[in-house]
Amino acid sequence: MKKITFIGILLLIFNFSATVSAQKKGFYENVQKKNVAKVLDDLNAFAAAADYTNYFDLYAEESTFIGTDATEVWNKKEFMVWAKPFFDKGKAWNFISLKRNITFSKDGNYAWFDEVLDTQMKICRGSGVLEKIGGKWKIRQYVLSTTVPNEVIDEVVKAKTPIEDSLLKNLKNQ
Prior knowledge:
Layout: H1 2-48, H2 52-57, E1 59-66, E2 73-75, H3 76-88, E3 96-104, E4 110-119, E5 122-133, E6 136-146, H4 153-172
Parallel strand pairs: 1-6
Antiparallel strand pairs: 1-2, 3-4, 4-5, 5-6
């Protein structure tokens, strides 16, 4: 009887310990999701306010921005040069996140996200990867994509064909 009671107590302790550990992990993940979401929300707010310095401080030094045009693949310095005239005008772009998913690597040092954005281009999708660097989340890669409703894809393909045929030829010959 003492043996059964002892085993029961051990099982209760183990179950309690596992529950507390799971709660801590869930709490930590929720805090980290809020931290990553804040970086992405700040990114949108800084662009809308044309705050060049704070906007680009959210990117890791070695980062990549991939824009909606097939030719737009820039490292941070190149993206800064491209974006500066927009920020200098006092208004860059105004993206509002409508829906966002955030997932973490097992070690908790990387987060990747996808989000649906309300933009001047109508609905777009932002996606990318953040890395925790020096205790702060920094954007390593950001991909901005326009969405195309299936009902109009043929018209969009027709419109972009003359523009992209030469690009496709060049890419295939590289």
